[in-house]
Amino acid sequence: MDSINFFKGYGKVNNPSENQQLQLQQISSQKALQRRRIILSASLAILLTIIVLALIGGLVHESATEPAEPEDELNDSGESLKTVCGVTQHLDSCINSISSLNDPPRSDPVHFFNLSLQVSLRELANLSSLPRTLISRSNDPKTESALKDCVNLFDDSLSQLKNSAELMKVGPGEKKMLLTEMKISDMQTWISAAMTDQETCLDGLDEMGSTVVDEVRVRVHKSNEYMSNSLAILNNLKDLVAKFGLKMP
What CDD domains does this protein map onto (predicted)? Predict the structure, then answer.
């Protein structure tokens, strides 16, 4: 009997009890559950990171691919005018003369050129009456002769600017002024010729030793300054149009 009991006791020592097996299974299940939780948490963290990076990347791409807008400063009509007049040699007179027209705000260099041309045309129209007024006051035949030449030269100059202004008119059914290469070339020629006519008038008065030459020179200088502004804008019109994000026809 003792032998039998010994073997029974030996068997109990070397085989885990059912409670121990159950505990081991529970521990194993808990570890497996913890591993699954860790894996799930890591997966969620990675997924959230990918989503956040995708959103950031989308915002960056949207910002980088937005159509180029004109510079912020060009959105303001006053700054737009300053930019256009910046290509001239007489910035202040360009800005002040165009601003004096009190035209509705625009951010279009072609429109500003047209306004500059209107300023030049208005000033020259006022100037063209000056030689006639001086003739009526003069007692010097030589001065009168030179002034009569000035009358013809100023009339021709005025005609050149009127030709340019005609090209800027909007035709039937057109919504905006269209400037072609040929129109720009013609206006460059006409404005330059108008400026030359005025200088020729002054040269004639100088040759005659006229006493009114200084009075005429002051007025011609102002008129020529406005035309110089118009010509400078016209000469740089293509670059200005591109800077404003617009296109020439």
Answer: PMEI-like_3
